[in-house]
Design brief:
The complex is a heterodimer of chains A (412) and B (102). Chain A is of the alpha/beta class and 412 residues long. Chain A is built from 10 helices and 26 strands. In chain A, strand 14 and strand 15 form a beta hairpin. Chain A starts with 5 loop residues before the first strand and ends with a helix. The chains are: A alpha/beta (412), B mainly beta (102). Chains A and B meet through helix 7 and helix 8 of A and loops of B.
Chain lengths: 412, 102
């Protein structure tokens, strides 16, 4: 059997890194091995498409903590290293470089990788996905003023890059296959408001677009659309979603279905193995279903959950999902879910730089989206998140009335 | 040398709420909690964001940008993404006015 007093974490991203640090900070005294494919120690991804791309934040500043802190906390970091096999019977992990680690507890924090767009010409230089710190550094060097950037995918990552590139004086076009932006995460009105903001800043947004391929000689020169349109491009960023990295989990015999299946304590179908972060599809008691979340909040909170589980003080993971985005000097925040809702009501208007959409399912508040300049929407989104958390049934008329303080609805 | 500065009247901060106080070129956050009035630095230690736009839950201030949380009474950073504590400042109430010592 493996070393019972050892935790091995596969994946040194935000979730894996936080789990290692939290275990040590919570008094875990055994060995901690943190295995990461990338050369950098664990870092936060959110700033990569914003401050780092803009050159306002040095890329090293995205790291959760300095290398010396891992040493000080006696966390063994194995970077540039991939786990290749897990022997669940003998509780051993094998890595590419032949290293083997016995584990008492094994955490999968393998994250996700960007979906590729394998259309003709996709191998041309200047076409990239966007996921790692290196991706951000590389792209920032390409985004010279006056250059043409085409972004494929009108989701959060694409729109954040669009905003940053616009601030860098690039000519920016966003192509979206659906008939509107952010169809996965936002109601129609909110998506139209986000489009309005980008329009104000001079980004061209094209929806319902089918892409034929890419043309160029060694380096991309244009994106070719199915209707014959040819969009000049010096750089192309593909932002059409991420895929959970579950290959090793599957190979190791763990239950996988859109992510590694876990219970609310982050335990997988195999004893002493857990999964957290983007790669995990976790049971949320609140929704009575398994949900895979892709957010910073999820990485942080699941790192805390697995720590408690391993330290035999289990606390169910059951948050109302929340995430933020920053585009220009605008903040977008969402909590809960706005899909599958029965009614959408809003307060405020995007023209007044602060608008909030509430999604109701039956009589219950189910989700909220706030779009505003600065952090103006944060309070309302947070209050709405708490209304959802407490399963409140607010009157839609109160939600749409800006004179009603949402805090008062909490105690109502 | 530190001195006391008037921030506002006690009725100008709702209970379980926060206001911003600017002094010199610095920004402070002054809170009214169930445990009384408190003051901390006004900018989150994680990214540049004014905490007075955040919400107070009990004696915890939550940053509006990334929901990083601090204990108001001692400035302690409570949860990711914040890890650096907030500086706190002495506060007193006299004749229904709130004062901060800077």
């Amino acid at each position: 059997m493996g070393n019972n007093n050892s935790v091995v974490i596969i994946g040194a991203g935000q979730a894996g890194g936080r789990a290692a640090l939290a275990l040590r900070d919570s008094g875990f005294e055994g060995d901690i091995h943190l295995i990461g494919k990338e050369p950098s120690p664990p870092y936060n991804r959110p700033p990569l498409s914003k401050a780092v791309l803009l050159g306002k934040k040095p890329v090293e500043k995205t790291q959760l903590t300095g290398l010396e802190n891992y040493q000080e906390k006696n966390i063994q970091l194995h970077l540039d290293c991939s786990a290749t096999a897990v022997d669940t019977e003998n509780q051993v992990v094998t890595c590419t470089d032949g290293k083997r680690f016995d584990y008492g507890h094994l955490i999968f924090a393998t994250g996700s990788y960007p979906r590729e767009l394998n259309l003709p010409g996709h191998e041309l230089n200047g076409i990239t996905t966007f996921r790692t710190d290196q991706d951000s550094v590389d792209l920032s060097q390409c985004l010279t003023p006056g250059s043409d950037l085409v972004i494929i995918g009108g989701g959060f990552i694409g729109l954040e890059i669009a905003a940053s590139a616009k601030e860098l004086d690039c000519n920016v076009t966003v192509l979206e296959a659906q008939d509107r932006l952010m169809s996965r995460s936002m109601p129609e009105g909110a998506a139209a408001d986000v489009a309005h903001v980008h329009d104000q800043f001079g980004v061209t947004i094209m929806t319902g677009v089918t892409i034929q391929g890419f043309s160029g000689n060694g380096k991309v020169e244009a994106v070719e659309l199915a209707d014959g349109t040819r969009l000049k491009a010096d750089n192309v960023v593909i932002g059409i979603g991420i895929i959970p990295d579950t290959a090793l989990a599957q190979q190791s015999g763990l239950d996988v279905n859109n992510g590694i299946i876990t219970d609310q304590f982050t335990k997988t179908s195999v004893d002493n193995i857990y999964a957290i972060g983007d790669c995990a599809c976790t049971y949320l008691p609140r929704y009575d279903q398994h949900i895979r979340l892709e957010s910073s909040q999820n990485a942080d909170l699941q790192a805390a959950t697995v720590t408690k589980t391993i330290l035999a003080d289990p606390q169910a993971y059951n948050p109302v999902p929340w995430l933020w985005s920053q585009q220009y000097n605008w903040v977008i925040q969402t909590a809960g879910f706005t899909q599958d809702s029965d009614q959408i009501v809003s307060r405020g208007r995007v023209e007044d730089e602060c608008v909030v959409y509430f999604a109701l399912k039956g009589r219950h508040l189910h989700g909220v989206v706030g779009i505003g300049k600065g952090a103006t929407v944060a309070k309302e989104v947070r209050m709405a998140q708490m209304l959802i958390e407490h399963d409140k049934q607010p009157d839609p008329a109160d939600l749409s009335n800006p004179d009603i303080n949402l805090k008062d609805l909490l105690t109502a | 040398m530190s001195e006391w500065h008037r921030v506002c009247g006690t009725d100008e901060i709702d209970e379980e709420d926060v206001i911003q106080f600017n002094h010199g070129d610095k920004v402070y956050a002054v809170y009214n909690t169930e445990k009384g009035f408190f003051a901390t630095d006004g900018i989150c230690t994680h990214e540049h964001q004014e905490l007075a736009d955040g919400i107070v839950i009990g004696t915890v201030i939550e940053c509006p940008l990334h929901q990083g949380r601090f204990e108001i009474t001692d400035g302690c950073a409570l949860s990711a993404p914040v890890c650096i504590d907030l500086k706190t400042y002495p506060v007193k109430v006299e004749n229904n006015n709130v004062f901060i010592e800077l």
